[in-house]
Amino acid sequence: MSSSFGFKTLVPCAAAVAAVVGAAAPVHAQQYPAKVVRVIVPFAPGGGSDISARRFSAKLTSVLGQQFVVDNRGGAAGLIGMELTAKSPPDGYTIMIMSGSFSATSATRQPAFDPINTIVPIVEFGITPFILTVHPSVPVKSTKELIALARSRPGDLTYANTGIGGFTHLATEYFSSVAKIRMVGVPYKSTGAGMADLLSGQVPIICGSLLPVVPHLKTGKLRGLGVSTVKRWYSLPDLPAISETLPGFDVVLWFGAMAPRGTPQPIIDRLNGAINDILKMDDVKSSLEREGMQATGGPPDAFGKRIRTDYERWSKVIKEAKLEIK
Questions:
Q1: How far is it, in rounded angstroms, from Cα 50 to Cα 311?
Q2: pTM score, two decimals?
Q3: Is 133 in a helix, a strand, or coil?
Q4: Residue ranges of the chain assigned to CATH 3.40.190.10
Q5: How does pLDDT run across 243-275, given as a tens digit for each residue?
Q6: Of all helices (H) and strands (E), which one includes residue 41?
Q7: May I ask the CATH architecture of the domain 129-244?
């Protein structure tokens, strides 16, 4: 007896299977998230990454209907949280919110788990400058005066950073290299973690992210000397750019969300779309503007390009400036 299940039957069956498989991804994305999402922050509470993570986690909870819970895993300039992210199941239920320290730490530490290739971009939130900041006990009121003081006391001044090889460490060492000065770094788990010693004057200098520093500039507890962007920043128009003293100096701090490599693209796209929508909300826009962050958003690929460009740039800076990251 001959079978009637031949080539003509296989073609429509194959087409039906393809249609089902093709439809599965968007259906999966539509059902996401179905449970709590862990949001890893590779720094201690209180810094720029933590502040951004809490804002966007609350909004994602509201928009997507499931809890997005911040999990601070500070230490080793962000490496502890980065490795935890890279090795988490790529199912969309672990994401990471971090600053440009991601590229800096990847370039300086070059860890075995290769974060540049094992963690993928979701979306950039925005960009902001660092602020070269001192405690009022430091007898300077400008970048030029700080450079002169540091040259007169080589190796005597101390500055706070977010870990050896992290972004604040790298940015400050870059500044020191360009200014031809030498200061001693004191590592903390985040800008927020170092704030107590900064406010007491125990560690009187930081090239820190804008979010945790600005409130203390307004009260006079800290003094801003300059912003790290090539031009003055819109929210601090009276604060000079460091480049006005050191021509060409330009360091931009970004914040964004990432996920373990292998996270389904439809989930990446759903999160990307949700965060882009959040960035358009009036209350979010006004908060970011008030805090001095320029919202960016955009597709994952654009954020990925920023990450890799920064990585290549910092790798070049480390080599050219002969920075020793121990």
A1: 22
A2: 0.78
A3: strand
A4: 129-244
A5: 999 999 999 999 999 999 999 999 999 999 999
A6: strand 37-41
A7: 3-Layer(aba) Sandwich (3.40)
- Largest Cα–Cα distance of the chain, in whole Å? 100
Report the DSSP beta bridge partners of residue 172.
Answer: none
Alpha-carbon distance 233 to 135, whole Å? 21
Q: How far lies 69's CA from each of 73, 111, 153, 278, in Å? A: 13, 27, 46, 17
| Residues 122/256, Cβ–Cβ less than 8 Å | yes
- Distance in angstroms (rounded) separating the CA atoms of residues 260 and 11: 37
Residues recorded for the chain: 326
Buried b (16+ CB within 10 A) or exposed e, 240-257: bbbbbbbeebebbbbbbb
Angle made by CA atoms 173, 100, 224, in degrees to the nearest 5: 55
Beta bridge pairs of residue 72: 41
List, in order, residues 6 or more apart from 156 with CB less than 8 Å away. Answer: 184
3-state secondary structure of 188: coil
DSSP string, 61-125: HHHHSS-EEEEE---GGGHHHHHHHHTS-SSSSEEEEEETHHHHHHHHH--TT-HHHHEEEEEEE
Q: What is the pLDDT of residues 114-157, one digit of tens each?
A: 999 999 999 999 999 999 999 999 999 999 999 999 999 999 99
CA angle 46, 70, 76 (to 5 degrees): 60
Q: Which two tokens stand for residue 227?
A: 């912003």
Query: From the centroid of its chain, how far is CA 66?
Result: 24
Q: What CATH number does domain 29-127+252-320 carry, 2.40.128.280, 3.40.190.150, 3.30.70.100, 3.40.640.10?
A: 3.40.190.150
Which residues in the chain are classed under CATH 3.40.190.150?
Answer: 29-127+252-320
Collapsing DSSP to helix, strand or coil, 245 comes out as coil
Which residues share a beta bridge with 206?
133, 160
